[in-house]
């Protein structure tokens, strides 16, 4: 359990820049002529939507990202993240462009006197991507398939990415890496004593017994690690029949990138696509089919998928409850997953692995025969 002092120090790590300060940073560090600045939702960093005055060439909308003090102490990792965003854009993925600061760096360290100490924050500027978060629309089976395909293509493409500081993505105790599900045990106190806690404890126990022992059999890769329903943007267009068709127009937030496994990326994507769905259990089969059209799973990976999806639910739900204690003013943002997440996790738990897998695997199989369910 974290002590009060530990909680306070973590709370202090999140930036608290005003709109005026963000505007001044965009101008002084990146040379923009700022017309307007608006705060954007964020977990433990700070993001601003920056509108720049029109110029003859170049974009007029940007995202100013201010990393928390802990992340700012690892500039190598942020450099790698920026280079990956640019690498993926060059490979045809809908990622932002990374803007250079006046000194030609892709990130700049700014120091702020808080009164009691000097705090340093890494600041970046990315182009603003168009589109709506997938959370705002009813997701069709075809779109779920495309998102599964996108997740696999992203991880597969990153196998070709090389960087002298790539080792910074080996994040040993990073709470959001699925490998570190057992670390949730020290945060369970935030749940109190109830059925939700019992389910989480059981998932952690199964994870230790059934996943930790099989990690060496999973295929390793770099994971985006957070392909959630707010980090994937979509745009609509009219089909020949007059119906709206959606395409992915943006992939956001590469801050949780780390070394993991292909099956981790798939499990994380399935879990987040379940959040807004009216038929959450059906989701996994469509995402799985899309993923396997690029990277088919091995039998061992497939056998772990159910438990990995449950584990990601546990990570998201436990850490949301914990974060609400640290930053109560941001509760609405943290609890987005919890609105339906606990219900979905309980449903998976009650149905059991065999029943859920049967639905997923049969749905995925139907794509092979050309008859998607």
Automatic annotation (TrEMBL):
<dbReference type="InterPro" id="IPR011009">
    <property type="entry name" value="Kinase-like_dom_sf"/>
</dbReference>
<comment type="similarity">
    <text>Belongs to the aminoglycoside phosphotransferase family.</text>
</comment>
<dbReference type="InterPro" id="IPR050249">
    <property type="entry name" value="Pseudomonas-type_ThrB"/>
</dbReference>
<dbReference type="InterPro" id="IPR002575">
    <property type="entry name" value="Aminoglycoside_PTrfase"/>
</dbReference>
<keyword id="KW-0418">Kinase</keyword>
<feature type="domain" description="Aminoglycoside phosphotransferase">
    <location>
        <begin position="40"/>
        <end position="280"/>
    </location>
</feature>
<keyword id="KW-0963">Cytoplasm</keyword>
<dbReference type="GO" id="GO:0047992">
    <property type="term" value="F:hydroxylysine kinase activity"/>
</dbReference>
<protein>
    <recommendedName>
        <fullName>Hydroxylysine kinase</fullName>
        <ecNumber>2.7.1.81</ecNumber>
    </recommendedName>
</protein>
<dbReference type="Pfam" id="PF01636">
    <property type="entry name" value="APH"/>
</dbReference>
<dbReference type="GO" id="GO:0005737">
    <property type="term" value="C:cytoplasm"/>
</dbReference>
<keyword id="KW-0808">Transferase</keyword>
<comment type="function">
    <text>Catalyzes the GTP-dependent phosphorylation of 5-hydroxy-L-lysine.</text>
</comment>
């Amino acid at each position: 359990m974290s002590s009060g002092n530990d909680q306070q120090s973590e709370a202090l790590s999140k930036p608290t820049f005003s709109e005026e300060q963000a505007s001044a940073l965009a101008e002084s560090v990146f040379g923009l002529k700022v017309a307007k600045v608006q705060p954007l939702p964020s977990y433990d960093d700070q993001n601003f939507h920056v509108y720049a005055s029109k110029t003859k060439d170049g974009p007029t909308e940007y995202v100013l990202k201010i990393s928390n003090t802990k992340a700012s102490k690892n500039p190598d990792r942020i450099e790698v993240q920026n280079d990956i965003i640019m690498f993926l854009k060059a490979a045809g993925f809908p990622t932002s462009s990374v803007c250079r600061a006046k000194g030609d760096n892709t990130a700049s360290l700014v120091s702020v006197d808080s009164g009691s100490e000097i705090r340093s924050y890494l600041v970046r500027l990315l182009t603003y991507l168009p589109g709506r978060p997938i959370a705002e629309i009813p997701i069709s089976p075809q779109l779920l398939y495309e998102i599964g395909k996108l997740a696999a293509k992203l991880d597969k493409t990153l196998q070709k990415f090389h960087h002298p500081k790539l080792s910074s993505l080996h994040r040993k105790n990073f709470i959001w890496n699925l490998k570190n599900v057992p670390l949730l045990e020290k945060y369970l106190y935030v749940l109190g004593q109830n059925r939700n806690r019992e389910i989480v404890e059981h998932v952690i126990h199964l994870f230790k017994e059934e996943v930790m022992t099989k990690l060496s059999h999973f295929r390793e890769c770099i994971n985006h690690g957070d392909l959630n329903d707010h980090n994937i943007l979509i745009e609509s267009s009219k089909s020949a029949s007059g119906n709206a068709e959606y395409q992915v127009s943006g992939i956001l937030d590469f801050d949780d990138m780390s070394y993991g496994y292909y099956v981790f990326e798939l499990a994380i994507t399935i879990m987040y696509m379940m959040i807004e769905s009216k038929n959450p259990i059906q989701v996994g089969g469509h995402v799985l089919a899309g993923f396997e059209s690029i990277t088919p799973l091995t039998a061992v990976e497939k056998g772990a998928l159910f438990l990995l999806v449950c584990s990601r639910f546990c990570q998201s739900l436990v850490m949301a409850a914990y974060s609400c204690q640290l930053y109560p003013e941001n509760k609405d943002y943290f609890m987005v997953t919890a609105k339906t997440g606990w219900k979905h996790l309980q449903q998976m738990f009650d149905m059991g692995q065999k029943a859920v897998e049967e639905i997923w695997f049969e749905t995925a199989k139907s794509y092979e025969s050309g008859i998607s369910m």
